[in-house]
């Protein structure tokens, strides 16, 4: 049976999904445009996901911080926060730094649980993504496709 829409048109979610907050964290950059790309990606991902509470964060060098994103999730009603590293491989940030940031954030919110999810690699879909990126770039330099969003206007996608 389909859930009945609320008067404002939204579809109510189960209590479990309503209490889940997601923080997608990258390293952070001194380049504002790099931080903005991450924040835009997280907003777009949130719109396509079934999750109600999704926040971008930067581990360092930029705001919003993990603390700020964690706090925003709790303020929105999350009782469990998943910190999803936007990193390719396990390393010191995943093994040590992000768990420490998450623990510090959670310590301010009694009763809120958290999970630091695995990094993106070595997920099998990354192999597909690498292949698709290479195919697109080769098609672009052959004049068959426009530049991708990453390269658009940079003149970086060219044979030298």
Summarize the structure.
The protein has helices at 15-18, 32-48, 66-75, 92-107, 125-141, and strands spanning 20-26, 53-58, 80-85, 113-116. The chain is α/β, with parallel strands linked by helices.
Description:
By secondary structure, the protein is α/β, with parallel strands linked by helices. Helix content is 40%, strand content 14%. A four-stranded parallel sheet has the order 2-1-3-4, with helices on both faces. The protein is built from five helices and four strands; from the N terminus they run H-E-H-E-H-E-H-E-H. It is elongated, with a radius of gyration of 19 Å. It folds into two domains: 15-116, Rossmann fold (3-Layer(aba) Sandwich); 124-160, no CATH class. Strand 3, helix 4 and strand 4 form a beta-alpha-beta unit. Mean pLDDT is 90; it is low at 8-16. Helix 3 (66-75) packs across helix 4 (92-107).
- The N- and C-terminal alpha carbons lie at a distance of 58 Å
- How would you write the strand order of the largest sheet? 2-1-3-4
Strand content: 5-15%
User: Which CATH top level class of the largest domain fits?
Assistant: Alpha Beta
Rg to the nearest angstrom?
A: 19 Å
